[in-house]
Each structure stands twice: as structure tokens, then as C-alpha cells.
Amino acid sequence: MKKFRGLSYAVVSAAAFVAASSAQATIIDKTLTLTAGAFTSTNGTAAPISPVTIQFAITFDNSANIQGTTNGLTILSSNLTGWGPLKYAYDASLDNLFFGTDIGPNGFQVFFSRNDLGTFIRNISSATPVATQVQYSAAAGASYLSGTSSVTVAQAAVPEPATWAMFIGGFGLLGATMRRRKIAVHFA
């Protein structure tokens, strides 16, 4: 009985440790589509690209601030060509993701003399992040600010019932096979 009690204390302690350590950080793993349109220009010219659409996958730990990096960022598609490399930074206290070409410790900068892009996404850890205005520049010396912007989160695929049935059936067959197998014990 003492052995069982000692073992149960060890299991409960280990479970509490795992639960406590996993509650400290969350790994954010999302595929997002950023869309912006209705651009206005700093010099009155029409925006060369409107709407701007960028689809990207991002994975990061939201427990601490992240300075401008490309780690965990994959650009899946974009109708902006010649802008890059795209980077991100994360502000853990505000849950804001800064996204663009020139990412610094205080957000993003857009320079008129080159192809630059910048935006930030609020509440990135939530199920419904919110995109702010998108600003980009073309090397022609003008900057374009979006009047509308949105970000959508790609939903994870849910297996069909037939897939679940095959999965459960396979485990059932595996269990039945293991139960029926005879174990021969040989002594030397």
C-alpha cells in the first residue's frame, strides 16, 4: 500500500509540474491572410497595387517580446513582388504583432525611397486578430496608406467521420492483436 501511495504522489506531482509549466507560455501557430485596400497616397498618385494580399504562416512563443526576425515566418503567397524580406516582431504586453520589411524595437518604419511595407496586428493570440492600417511604399517616392484592412485566420482541417472510424478501428485491431498474442517465457 505504501508503494502505491508513493507512486501516486509521484504521478500527481509530475502532472502538476507539467500543468504549471505549460500554463506559462503558449505557442502561437497560425496561417493568416492579410488584405488591405482603398489606399490613399502621400503625393496624390494612385496606389500601384490595390488590394494588397499576403498569406503567411507564423509560429512563435508569446511569453516574451520578440525583436525583428524571420524565424517561424513563412510567406505562402503575396501580390507584392520585390518587397522583402518580410519580418515580424512581437510585443507580449500588448499582444501585438508588427509585420513588414523594416521592423524595429518600436514597430515598423516605411521609407519612401524603397519598397517597404508595414502593419501591425492586434490580439494576435486570440481567435480573431485585428489588422490595423497597412502602409507600403514603392521606390517612386510615395507612400500608400490603406483605408480598409482585415486579417483572417485559416481554420484547421477537421477529419471526416470516416477517417475517425478508420483511426479508431485500427487501434481496436492493434489492441485485439496484442491481446491474442501468446507470450512465451523461457528460462535459461
Automatic annotation (TrEMBL):
<feature type="domain" description="Ice-binding protein C-terminal">
    <location>
        <begin position="157"/>
        <end position="181"/>
    </location>
</feature>
<dbReference type="Pfam" id="PF07589">
    <property type="entry name" value="PEP-CTERM"/>
</dbReference>
<keyword id="KW-0732">Signal</keyword>
<feature type="signal peptide">
    <location>
        <begin position="1"/>
        <end position="25"/>
    </location>
</feature>
<dbReference type="InterPro" id="IPR013424">
    <property type="entry name" value="Ice-binding_C"/>
</dbReference>
<protein>
    <submittedName>
        <fullName>PEPxxWA-CTERM sorting domain-containing protein</fullName>
    </submittedName>
</protein>
